[in-house]
Amino acid sequence: MKPTLPTCEACSGQLTWTQSLRAQRFFYEYTYCPYCREKQYINTHKKHLSVILLAAVSPLIINLFIDLSIVSSLALYAVIITIGFVVTPFAYSLKSKDPILAKRGNSA
Q1: Would the pTM count as exceeding 0.85?
Q2: How far apart are CA 53 and CA 80, in angstroms?
Q3: pLDDT tens, per residue, the chain with 108 residues
Q4: Residue 15 burial by CB count (10 A; 0-12/13-18/19+): exposed, middle or buried?
Q5: How far apart are CA 64 and CA 41, in angstroms?
Q6: Taking CA 17 as the corner, what is the angle to CA 11 and CA 21, rounded to the nearest 5 degrees?
Q7: CA quadruple 42, 30, 18, 86: dihedral positive or negative?
Q8: Which residue, among 42, 21, 18, 38, has the nearest Cα to 30 in the 3D structure?
Q9: Which residues pair with 30 in a beta bridge?
Q10: Cβ-count burial of 37 within 10 angstroms (0-12 exposed, 13-18 middle, 19+ buried)?
Q11: What does the alpha-carbon distance between residue 89 and residue 4 come to, in Å, rounded to a whole number?
């Protein structure tokens, strides 16, 4: 699966990296398309998020086997946080209908 930036289902406009980072609000499950102003629901890709989570805990795992200094650990965390910040806009897509309600409707 090639990482791509989110695309609006209503107008097919692809968000830029900055727009997709702004659209990814952690307290809301939807955002508005910057082009057509339609409500778009955020659908996260679980594979991408699991890789980001694994990268976040990797310094702890590395520290179990190799004795890292505090400075090395902090530098490693800074690099991982920066990479995670750059990659997170690619970890979701936009849907016109609420994916949570769609799953509930299919299972009922």
Answers
A1: no
A2: 10
A3: 577 889 998 899 999 988 888 887 666 778 888 899 999 988 877 777 787 788 878 888 888 888 888 888 888 888 888 888 888 888 888 888 886 666 665 554
A4: buried
A5: 40
A6: 95
A7: negative
A8: 42
A9: 41
A10: exposed
A11: 9
